[in-house]
Structures are given as structure tokens and as C-alpha cells.
């Protein structure tokens, strides 16, 4: 060992020196940063963009912070003493459809007004006694729906005062049903969560929690019309509340009140309450989780025990959880929690804490939980003193809700900078065009007013944001601040070297995307809780962690046990001597645990078929290929990538599903085009589980400003090409996906054009490529022409550019829908999703054919339980099970994990907005997948090559296509010869191997 240390002493010293230097460099960043020292402040210069007056984003409502600041500057102040309660049934007007009166809800007779359908609305007339700011709230009852939070918007006198008013969330209530359950390995699993129906009151506040207090609305004296409109989910309204802003006392005020009332500290009481035992939660995704620190209670050395609450699922605005605790005597107590907060590198997170439905004092509105790579004790209080809480003897309820309000101003600054960067990019493009000559002096300072001051001002805004982050408690070596430093320094460098800007526009656009992603990551304020501490002030706080020896011992125990522990088995694991159906699932463990739970609760009790479920790394299909080769393949595999069933089938590895007499009945669950890739030699070898889909997304506001009204949104590719010049004239662009260096993506991007023009990938049963047909030629010309003739961007972050308005229209897949639905609240009501453009046929119909191959379920040939395996596949792909799986998955992981099931009936039942599901189902009428053949990977590869040759290298389409088809045919012939598919004798042998008749 000493010899090794001497040998590598220089290397070790260098590493230590570099590490120390890096840490010192990081530590030096912050308040003492000198980058802005010589940058002037421009108070007397108009720094507006030349596009600001005509920019379509000016159509969007301001943010709440801007609205409030503007009204305050105009002299608006909080009113006092006003409390108006409007019963829901005393409305001035309601929508013609979608509303109804409800009675007998939550133990109250009613009647109550319910908004049932999306876009139904109710209006109230209210007489305001004086000018000023008011707050609002609503008492509501969430009716049975699709399990999502209730979403409403509010308009005042026919307009939204700020964009957050378009998406107000009113959570449902959920509770655990029964006790946690255990598998036969002793591992603990979460009990089922079910909805609790009842009346709730909630202030109108930011659904993302970026504003720390309920919204203030400015209302002038006189009559106003307030409209509440349904966006999502049915709910009844009991009353609308309009009142003067509540003044929450500070802790000092409350402490003085304690003295006045004679409240005394209690003594001798200490108890902690396990926070995995939450009695209510706003979201079924909030659940028990495991924490392996040995002082976490309870703890099990040999099995999974769910001994903590929250974690990565408890991160979004409006998410709250509630716990019950009891104290023996009336008096003053200290409160705190044992928590883990290691999710945002170096950044604190916040929670709002209420007791019995009320904020005890103002400081509990934004309780900060600092970052640390270990469990901590949070004493509710300051560094100098612990807060005292007055509690009467008996039971109390403590609620904690995600709060991000302190960072709201920083997010606003960064968002404003990204907007300015977008405007600046468009102004530069107006001067230089899309392909500027790098050797030309474009004289940008003369053509773009106040260019350098604008760059300096953007940099200063980012620098101010960095300072606020450090004031909030961000650690100085945190990676969370790096994107802001990088963007600031890049802007400063551009101001120093203006002539380099045209060549650096892509870098500027990438920086925009990075800042947008930074905001999206920072709003995820995850927190883990172990237990709630309630104690008398004279009692000591518990230690935050177990002794070092216990932690080290646990680490070593887990390490050595990892060599013998089965990490692949999930849930109940049956012995080898039993007749058991073996199912392998190529998905994440959270997905697999839900599948196993459904099996144990439903499939096994109903059929008496025992099932072992094992995980396979997602996407690692070679594991299944190796298992088949080694004769240890499972009976059933789920999550098999769509390209692979035919590879297995050709090798005689899968059961032909159409051998089962009810196969055709089961196949009716899916779109006919979804089954194409799994057909081979007269057989059907897989059932689709889920499927992707491409749609057309567009910004309503921007397209209307450009004169492209809803009836003129393009339905064909010819119409797309008509609007692209209009977009370019206004510094915008159309988006069509292209993933460079991803051959699999290329074939999916090309397939819609080929199918819509009536082409095929192969002919003569997969012997030859059909890409040399006239239909394929037209498809290639249209596809590549978007990039060559119409100069749309070859690569772009569509989500972020859609938000900024640079790409107000484009084709994208399901993941974009999820992002826009969950992470773009400012665009609520301003974007729409339609079926993708297509090709108009002679009969006037528009062919919108496209696919979205995803994952499948298969039965392996060597199974000794063929009928049982088929029963399992029928059960798994049924509408009821797919609906329940999708619901449980979304309950566990949130809307980001919404299950895009291939079962058409199940898709209709999942919590989509009606307008969105209508668009998806219309697109699915044209759903069509490509066939998969032996050697087809060469088709995938050469479609990408053809695109590169035409778009990047300028080759003629016909020439590039012919070269590609020649290579594809070579490989197809080679593979068919290898497997003897054209040799009658070998074909017979192959059929015999596959069991074909």
C-alpha cells in the first residue's frame, strides 16, 4: 500500500490541488463576484425591443407579479374590513350547457351549483364598496371525475387580470385504505389510496406556488362581473368569497398575544409522530417511501420498510399532506420535523405549515428546509430561538403544502431575460437573415438600438437573480446556479464582442433553453419527512442521525447483502417447485410494482394462476435475446420494444397469437394499424401495450395575430408550406422533429409522409425495399423540402421555443403534450392540439396516416403454460386493467407518467381533457404502423443517410434514394439468405421450428 501511495503521490497531489482549486473557485462565486463591477446601470435609456410593440407575446396577460406591481405603482392599496360571501346559486348567468344543481353533498342539503363539463361557466354580479385590492376564495366539493385536481379560471369584467388566473387548482382529498401490505419476502407496500369526498375552502392562489400569498385582485368601487369557468374536472360550488386581504401576524405579534393571554410553556412532554401515517393528502402520488438511515423509524435490516413520507413525488405547487397529533395539556410547545432534503443540489426548499387550518404566524408561510446529504432536524424557528406554538389539550392537525414563493421573483427575472433573448435573436435575424456571412460586418449596433445596454441589462438581471438565490440560502458551490452564471457571462461577452453575435445565435438559443430547463428543475421542491416532533421547551431535540458506527454498519450490511439479494423479483415470489407463470417486464421498478400489485389483487385470485414478476432494464432487449438463446426465457414478456417481436418470431421464439380462437376478438381492442409491425408469415406475434402519437400543436394567440385564424390552421403539408414564409417574415419558424444521429427517430419522422402519399417501405413480402417508388420519392421530396426549400430549423427545443413564441406551430409527440399541460401554466388556454397535417386525396379526404410504435407483450415459444400465458395477456391488455394501471401509475408518479395505452377504450377513460382526447382519437383513426422485416435495420439507417445526403450535402433526392435503396436491398437479400427464407427446404424447416401449420 505504501509503495502504491509513493508511486501515485504526484497524481494524488495534482488531483487534490485541482479539486481544491475547483472548490475555491466555486466558493468565490456570489456577492464578491466582480463581473458586473464596471457595467453601468441604464436608468435613462429606453431598453425596449424594436419588436416589443408588435410582438405577439404582448397579447398574453402579464404575470401576477407584474400586475400587482403595476397596480401598486398606480396607487392601489389593500382594503380593510370587507367580507362578501356570494352563495353559488345566486348567480347572474350560467352557460347554456354543462351545469346542474346538486343537493345533499357533504351532509348539507343545498342546492349547490356544479360546473360539470369543460368550458361551462357561471357569472356573479358583485357590488364593491371601495377601490383597492381584494382576495378571493371558493368553497367547493370535487365530484366524481377522472381523479385529477379540479381546475378553474376566473375572469373579472370579461378579462383575465394576469395569466395565472387562467389556471387555479383546487385539489381533491385522498386517504389510505387499510394497512400497508407485505409480500412473502417481508417487503412492505403502500396501501391503496382512495378519494375522500367533502367540502373544502381554498383561496385563489398560484397553482405552481410561485407566489407565496393568495392573489390580490384590484377592484374599483361599483359593480363587477366575476366569471368562474371549468377547465378540468366536475365540482360543485357552495360559495364565492371576496374579502379584504388578510393580515397574518408576525411571530413577535403572536408572542405578545401569548403573554397577554397568560399562556405558559409546558414541561416534561416529548413525543414524535410518524409522518408516513398521513391522514389526508391532496394527491394520490403522495405516499410512504423507504429511507435506509438506521435511525429512521421503523427500520428493517432485511426487507423494505416504508418508514418515511414524500420524497420525489412531493414537489409540485398545491400538493399538501396532513397529519394528526395529540398533546396532553394546554400550553406552549415547540414543533419540528426530521427530514431529508438532498434533491436540489445545494438549494433549499420551502413548505407552508398550518395548524388546524390556520397559519399560526407569518413566518410559517415560508418554512425553509436547507440542503444537506443527510437527514436533519428542522426546529421550527430561527437560529437564535425555537418558535412557541399555543396548543390546547387534545388532537390537532398539521398540514404542510409546497411553497416556492420566495423564488418567484427570481423565476420572473429569468423568464423576462429569456423573453428578451428571444426578441434579440429575432431582431438579429431580421438584419442578417438565417444564414449570415461570417466574414461580413453586420453593424448590429447601428441596426439594433441600444444593443449593448440591452445585453448589459439582461446580464444584470441574471446577476441580481444569483444574489437573491444566495440570500435565500443557496450554497455557493451549488450546480443549481451554474446556468445563470453561464448565461450572464455569455451576454457580457457578446456585449464586449458584438461582431460575434450572428455566429453565436444558436448558442444564445441553447442558453434560452437551458434557462427554461433551470426554472423547470427548480420548481420541483421535493422533501422527505420521517417524523413530527412535538415537545415542551424544556426537553432536548433528538439527534438528526444515528451514531456513525450504526450508519457504517448499515452500509456494510447492505453492501454484503447485495450479493445475495434478488433485486429483479417483485412482490410475492413463488418457489420453483410450484406451477408459476414467469413474467419479465422491461420497465422501471415503480411501473413493475404496480403491475405485480394488480396481479396479486386481481389476476391470481380470479384465475388461480400464480405469477412471478421480474424486472428487466428498460430498453435492454438483448437480455431477452440471450435468455431465449440460453433456453431460460420467461413465459411472458412485457415492455418489449416494437422492433423486436419479429426478430424473435423469425428465430422461432414466440407463440403465434392468432392460434388462439379468441385472438380476433382481443385484437379489436386496438387500432388495426397498430398490429401491422407484429405480423409475420401469416402469424401475429405481439399485442401492443402503449403507443406514441404525433399531433399538431399551435399557439392560438400568435397565429391569430398573424392572421391565421382557427379555420386557417394548416391541415395539409401544402398549407403548411404556405404559412412558413409568413412565419419567417415575422422571425418565427415551423417545427418538424429531427433528431440528428438517431436513425430510429429518422424512420418515425419519415413514415407519416410515406404513408400519406400511399407508399410502402417494402414490397414482395419484405424481399425488396419499396422506397424507389414514385410515392416514396414524393414523400422524400416533401419531407426534406421542409428543411432545404423552406429552411425550417434542423434542430430545436420545440417546447421552450413554443413557450417563447419563436415556434408557434409544429408537429410533436405525446411527451410535448405532457410538458405543455404540466409546465407551461402561462399558456393555459392559448394553445391547442390537432391531428397532424396530411395529404389531400382525390376524393377530398385528408390522409393523416402516422404511427407511434412503442412497447408490446409477447409469449415465448418454450412456455409450458401457453393457455395461462394467453389468459394473462388478455387480462393485461383489457380496458379495465389498462385503465386501472394508468390511474395507479399517474397516482404514483404524477401526470408526467400518464399511460398512453394502446387500448382505445381505456384511453378514453383516462383523465384527458375532452378536447384533447377528441383530437387524439381523430388522429388514431389514421393510425398506421410500418411492417418490420428481417434486415429492416438497414432501412432505418439509410433513411437517416438519405436525409443527410439531401439536406446537408445537397445531393439530388433521386440520386440519394437510389443509393440508399441499393444498400437496403443488399442487406434484405443477405438476411433472407442467412435465414433461408427464399429456400423452400429451409422455409419448411423454419415453419416447423415456429410451429406454423
Automatic annotation (TrEMBL):
<dbReference type="Pfam" id="PF01547">
    <property type="entry name" value="SBP_bac_1"/>
</dbReference>
<feature type="region of interest" description="Disordered">
    <location>
        <begin position="978"/>
        <end position="997"/>
    </location>
</feature>
<dbReference type="InterPro" id="IPR050490">
    <property type="entry name" value="Bact_solute-bd_prot1"/>
</dbReference>
<dbReference type="InterPro" id="IPR006059">
    <property type="entry name" value="SBP"/>
</dbReference>
<protein>
    <submittedName>
        <fullName>ABC transporter substrate-binding protein</fullName>
    </submittedName>
</protein>
Amino acid at each position: 500500500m505504501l509503495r502504491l501511495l509513493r508511486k501515485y503521490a504526484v497524481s494524488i497531489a495534482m488531483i487534490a490541488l485541482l479539486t481544491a482549486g475547483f472548490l475555491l473557485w466555486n466558493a468565490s462565486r456570489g456577492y464578491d463576484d466582480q463581473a458586473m463591477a464596471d457595467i453601468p446601470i441604464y436608468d435613462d435609456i429606453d431598453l425596449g425591443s424594436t419588436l416589443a410593440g408588435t410582438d405577439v407575446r404582448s397579447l398574453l396577460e402579464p404575470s401576477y407579479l407584474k400586475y400587482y406591481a403595476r397596480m401598486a405603482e398606480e396607487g392601489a392599496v389593500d382594503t380593510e374590513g370587507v367580507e362578501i360571501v356570494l352563495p353559488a346559486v345566486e348567480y347572474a348567468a350560467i352557460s347554456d350547457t354543462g351545469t346542474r344543481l346538486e343537493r345533499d353533498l357533504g351532509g348539507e342539503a343545498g342546492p349547490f351549483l356544479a360546473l360539470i363539463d369543460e368550458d361551462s361557466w357561471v357569472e356573479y354580479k358583485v357590488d364593491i364598496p371601495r377601490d383597492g385590492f381584494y382576495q378571493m376564495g371558493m368553497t367547493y366539493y370535487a365530484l366524481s371525475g377522472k381523479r385529477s385536481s379540479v381546475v378553474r379560471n376566473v375572469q373579472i369584467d370579461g378579462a383575465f387580470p394576469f395569466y395565472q388566473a387562467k389556471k387555479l387548482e383546487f385539489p381533491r382529498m385522498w386517504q389510505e385504505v387499510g394497512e400497508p401490505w407485505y409480500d412473502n419476502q417481508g417487503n412492505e407496500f403502500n396501501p391503496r389510496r382512495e378519494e375522500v369526498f367533502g367540502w373544502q375552502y381554498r383561496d385563489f392562489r398560484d397553482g405552481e406556488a410561485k407566489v407565496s400569498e393568495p392573489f390580490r385582485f384590484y377592484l374599483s368601487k361599483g359593480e363587477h362581473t366575476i366569471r368562474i369557468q371549468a377547465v378540468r374536472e366536475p365540482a360543485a360550488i357552495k360559495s364565492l368569497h371576496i374579502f379584504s386581504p388578510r393580515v397574518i401576524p408576525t411571530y413577535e405579534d403572536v408572542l405578545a398575544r401569548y403573554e397577554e393571554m397568560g399562556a405558559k410553556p409546558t414541561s416534561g412532554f416529548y413525543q414524535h409522530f410518524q409522518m408516513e401515517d398521513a391522514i389526508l393528502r391532496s394527491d394520490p402520488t403522495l405516499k410512504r417511501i423507504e429511507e435506509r438511515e438506521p435511525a429512521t423509524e421503523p427500520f428493517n435490516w432485511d426487507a423494505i420498510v416504508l418508514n418515511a413520507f414524500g420524497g420525489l413525488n412531493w414537489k409540485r405547487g398545491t400538493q399538501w399532506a396532513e397529519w394528526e397529533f395529540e398533546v396532553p395539556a394546554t400550553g406552549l410547545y415547540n414543533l419540528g420535523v426530521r427530514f431529508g432534503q438532498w434533491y436540489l443540489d445545494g438549494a433549499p426548499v420551502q413548505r407552508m405549515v398550518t395548524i388546524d387550518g390556520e397559519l399560526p404566524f407569518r413566518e410559517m408561510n415560508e418554512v425553509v428546509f436547507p440542503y444537506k446529504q443527510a437527514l436533519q432536524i428542522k426546529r421550527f424557528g430561527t437560529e437564535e430561538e425555537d418558535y412557541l406554538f399555543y396548543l390546547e389539550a387534545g388532537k390537532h392537525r398539521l398540514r404542510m403544502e409546497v411553497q416556492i414563493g420566495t423564488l418567484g421573483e427570481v423565476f420572473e427575472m429569468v423568464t423576462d431575460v429569456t423573453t428578451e433573448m428571444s426578441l434579440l435573436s429575432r431582431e438579429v435575424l431580421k438584419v442578417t437573415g438565417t444564414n449570415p456571412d461570417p466574414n461580413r460586418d453586420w453593424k448590429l449596433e447601428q441596426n439594433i438600438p441600444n444593443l449593448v445596454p440591452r445585453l448589459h441589462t439582461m446580464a444584470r438581471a441574471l446577476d441580481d437573480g444569483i444574489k437573491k438565490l444566495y440570500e435565500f440560502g443557496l450554497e455557493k458551490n451549488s450546480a443549481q446556479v451554474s446556468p445563470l452564471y453561464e448565461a450572464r457571462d455569455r451576454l457580457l461577452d457578446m456585449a464586449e464582442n458584438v461582431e460575434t453575435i450572428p455566429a453565436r445565435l444558436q448558442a444564445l438559443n441553447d442558453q434560452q433553453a437551458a434557462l427554461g430547463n433551470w426554472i423547470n428543475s427548480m420548481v420541483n421542491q421535493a422533501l422527505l419527512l420521517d417524523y413530527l416532533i412535538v415537545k415542551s421547551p424544556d426537553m432536548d431535540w433528538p439527534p438528526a442521525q444515528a451514531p456513525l458506527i450504526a450508519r457504517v454498519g448499515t452500509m456494510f450490511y447492505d453492501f454484503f447483502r447485495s450479493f445475495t439479494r434478488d433485486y429483479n423479483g417483485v412482490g410475492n415470489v413463488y418457489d420453483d417447485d410450484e406451477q408459476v407463470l414467469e413474467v419479465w417486464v422491461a420497465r422501471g421498478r415503480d411501473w413493475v410494482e404496480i403491475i405485480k400489485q394488480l396481479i396479486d389483487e386481481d389476476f391470481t385470485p380470479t384465475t388461480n394462476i400464480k405469477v412471478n414478476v421480474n424486472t428487466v432494464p428498460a430498453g435492454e432487449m438483448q437480455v431477452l435475446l440471450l435468455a431465449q438463446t440460453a433456453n431460460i426465457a420467461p413465459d411472458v414478456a412485457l415492455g418489449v420494444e416494437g422492433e423486436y417481436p419479429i426478430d424473435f418470431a423469425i428465430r422461432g421464439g414466440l407463440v403465434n397469437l392468432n392460434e388462439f380462437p379468441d385472438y380476433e376478438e382481443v385484437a379489436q381492442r386496438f387500432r388495426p394499424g397498430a398490429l401491422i409491425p407484429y405480423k409475420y408469415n401469416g402469424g401475429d406475434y405481439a399485442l401492443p401495450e402503449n403507443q406514441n402519437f404525433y399531433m399538431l400543436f399551435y399557439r392560438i394567440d400568435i397565429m391569430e395575430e398573424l392572421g391565421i385564424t382557427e379555420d386557417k390552421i394548416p391541415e395539409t403539408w401544402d398549407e403548411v408550406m404556405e404559412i412558413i414564409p409568413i412565419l419567417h417574415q415575422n422571425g418565427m419558424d415551423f417545427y418538424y422533429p429531427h433528431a440528428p444521429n438517431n436513425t430510429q427517430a429518422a424512420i418515425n419522422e419519415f413514415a407519416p409522409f410515406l404513408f400519406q402519399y400511399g407508399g410502402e417501405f417494402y414490397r414482395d413480402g419484405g424481399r425488396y425495399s419499396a422506397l424507389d417508388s414514385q410515392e416514396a420519392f414524393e414523400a422524400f421530396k416533401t419531407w426534406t423540402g421542409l428543411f432545404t426549400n423552406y429552411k425550417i430549423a434542423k434542430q430545436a427545443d420545440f417546447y421552450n421555443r413554443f413557450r417563447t413564441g419563436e415556434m408557434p406551430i409544429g408537429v410533436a409527440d405525446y411527451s410535448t403534450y405532457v410538458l405543455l399541460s404540466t409546465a407551461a401554466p402561462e399558456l393555459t388556454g392559448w394553445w391547442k392540439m390537432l391531428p397532424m397535417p396530411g395529404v389531400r386525396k382525390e376524393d377530398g379526404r385528408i390522409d393523416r396516416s402516422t404511427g407511434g410504435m412503442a412497447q408490446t407483450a409477447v409469449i415465448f415459444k418454450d412456455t409450458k403454460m401457453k393457455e395461462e400465458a394467453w389468459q394473462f395477456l388478455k387480462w393485461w391488455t383489457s380496458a379495465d386493467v389498462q385503465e386501472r394501471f394508468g390511474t395507479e401509475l399517474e397516482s404514483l408518479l404524477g401526470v408526467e407518467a400518464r399511460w398512453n395505452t394502446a387500448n382505445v377504450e381505456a384511453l378514453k377513460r383516462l383523465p384527458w381533457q375532452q378536447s384533447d382526447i377528441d383530437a387524439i382519437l381523430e388522429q388514431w383513426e389514421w393510425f398506421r404502423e410500418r411492417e418490420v422485416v428481417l434486415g429492416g435495420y438497414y432501412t432505418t439507417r439509410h433513411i437517416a443517410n438519405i436525409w443527410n445526403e439531401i439536406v446537408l450535402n445537397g445531393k439530388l433526392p433521386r440520386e440519394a434514394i437510389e443509393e440508399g435503396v441499393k444498400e437496403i436491398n443488399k442487406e434484405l437479400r443477405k438476411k433472407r439468405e442467412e435465414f433461408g427464407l427464399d429456400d423452400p427446404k429451409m422455409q419448411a424447416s423454419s415453419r416447423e421450428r415456429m410451429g406454423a401449420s
